[in-house]
Design brief:
With about 100 residues, the protein is α+β, with helices and mostly antiparallel strands. The protein has a domain of about 50 residues. About 35% of the residues lie in helices and about 15% in strands. The chain contains 4 helices and 2 strands, in the order E-H-H-H-H-E. A two-stranded antiparallel sheet has the order 1-2. Helix 2 runs antiparallel to helix 3. Belongs to the NDUFAF7 family. Its main location: mitochondrion. Its EC number is 2.1.1.320. This is Protein arginine methyltransferase NDUFAF7.
């Protein structure tokens, strides 16, 4: 339940989302631990299919709905003082490099 409202993030292409989530690093780990050329070739074909713009990379989009509190700056609680020239770091939303609100 999101009593405080929701924020919509995205859409972003599947390719962008997977890259933001670290698909290249995961691919490298899998390639290093794979046994044999056939399994490495299958990993590379699968990566290409998921991220290539002509295949699934741009044809599929990711869209997220989050509690509004997840993307808003935290409100100072009573008794706390924030430095005026220093803002709190924004809360991360995994996989989304830009936030689009609707």
């Amino acid at each position: 339940m999101c009593a405080g409202g929701v924020a919509c993030v995205g859409p972003v292409s599947q390719s962008s989302f997977l890259r933001n989530m670290g698909i290249e690093a995961r691919l490298q780990v899998l390639l290093r631990s794979s046994a044999g050329d056939a399994s490495r070739a299958q990993l590379l074909r699968s990566y290409h299919m998921l991220t290539d713009p002509q295949q699934m990379g741009e044809r599929f989009q990711f869209f997220g709905i989050l509690p509004l509190s997840r993307v808003q700056e935290p409100r100072p609680q009573s008794g706390l003082t924030l430095e005026k020239n220093r803002r709190p770091a924004p809360l991360p939303v995994a996989g989304f490099s830009e936030l689009t609100y609707s």
